[in-house]
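Write out the 3D structure for:
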Amino acid sequence: MMIATAIDLRNEEVYVQCPVSAEDNMQNLYSIEKLMDQTRKLAKEYRQAMGKPLAVSNELAIYDAARLLNLQITEDVEGGYDAIGMVGPRTAKRFQIKARTIFNEDKSGQRIGQIKTEKEWDAVLLIIMDENYLPQEIYEADRQVLLEALDESKNAKRAKRGAMTVAKFKIISELVWDVHEGAELS
């Protein structure tokens, strides 16, 4: 079994594959954790130096969601979902994972990335990160609820493309993890 992570930096994809076995598990977990910590630091420094974010937040969000909610990251990036639930009520559930890094709490109208409505998936997870690219909250919305919300606003061109504001997503979803609780809420 392999865990695959893709990082897209200016259209250059870098794939990191780590075999998961009893012998390699601890060393690989440390290596991936260290890599993700370095990525967070680099992204923060890049934003400070360049004045714009480095496009790594979704890869960090996929990793964080898998780690915090017991999900298996998928290798098939074309399948329409990023991870599959491994335990509890999420077992075998297919998740699209979206990220939003909040740099300015006062800024309204922040949007999440396009939801792939035409693909096969069961729910969407939205990982809200702080300016250090650390997860603060995770929200979960089931497919039917999302499709209905997008359909309600189908007159808007953005809704047709599967776009939604962070505020709207929070309203229709359930908070399933936050940094203060340190464990799943649902």
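DSSP finds five helices and ten strands in the chain.
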